[in-house]
Amino acid sequence: MTTPILRRAVPADTHRLADIGRETFVETFGTLYPPADLSAFLQSAYDPGATRASLQDPAQASWLLEDASGRALGYATAGPCGLPHSEAGPGALELKRIYLRRIVQGGGLGGVLFDAVMRWMSDQSPPDVWIGVWSENLGAQRFYARRGFHKVGEYGFHVGNTIDREFILRRRPAF
Question: What is the pLDDT, as a whole number, of residue 174?
Answer without folding.
Answer: 61
